[in-house]
Specification:
Length: 207
């Protein structure tokens, strides 16, 4: 025995299905016409300057206008220096943050390429590793300047993590690492200078 509710549901479904088929039948000629390729006069015209298949339109990442490039990161650092000169620390902070991110991405990408070519092509592997080190140095320099800007903004809580990142990346014995540690000392985050003064060095006892 079939319940009346089920019958009603089947009938309504059948009506909807029939209506959909009728609509599809009426619209089908229009769809076929729309799918036909248009003539040459209807083809969109591609400007020569916008044609991506033209070798003359290639845009290398080494250009100043490209963000994912060393010149692009250096341009942001130059803009940050101008903002610092004008005491516009908000703009300087933004530019240095963007520059830092670009150099960090470049360093990671070059490091990945160096690892990919290890054992396959030593020359390429070493070349990419060298670029990874160079861009990491630029990243740390941008990070140091950003930390100084945060100090100028009286935001030491933002400067301290950046300075510690620099020391970890550069090592405490390198010039930028020493500068970062000196900043931590001036901020009062650490209380022991490095390198220690000669007078504070433990003297070796002579026998």
């Amino acid at each position: 025995m079939v319940y009346s509710g089920t019958v009603c549901w089947l009938r309504s479904t059948a009506r909807i299905t029939i209506g959909a088929i009728a609509a599809f039948t009426l619209l089908q000629p229009l769809q076929v016409q729309a799918q036909q390729p248009s003539g040459p006069e209807n083809q969109p015209q591609v400007e020569p300057a916008d044609d991506p298949t033209d070798p003359n339109n290639l845009r290398p990442l080494t250009q100043d206008s490209s963000l994912l490039s060393v010149p692009g990161g250096q341009r942001l650092m130059t803009e940050a220096s101008s903002a610092i000169s004008n005491q516009n620390y908000t703009l300087a902070s933004q530019k240095l943050q963007e520059s830092r991110q670009i150099f960090n991405q470049l360093s990671n990408f070059y490091q990945q390429l160096g690892s990919s070519f290890a054992g396959i092509d030593i020359r390429l592997a070493e070349s990419h590793r060298t670029k990874a080190v160079e861009t990491a140095q630029m990243r740390d320099e941008a990070t140091y300047r950003l930390a100084l800007v945060h100090r100028a903004q009286n935001k030491p809580e933002l400067a301290v993590p950046l300075l510690i990142q620099i020391i970890r990346s550069q090592q405490p014995t390198r010039d930028l690492g020493k500068k970062a540690y000196q900043q931590l000392l001036e901020l009062g985050f650490v209380d022991s200078p490095f390198p220690r003064p000669a007078s504070a060095q433990p003297s070796s006892s002579t026998k």
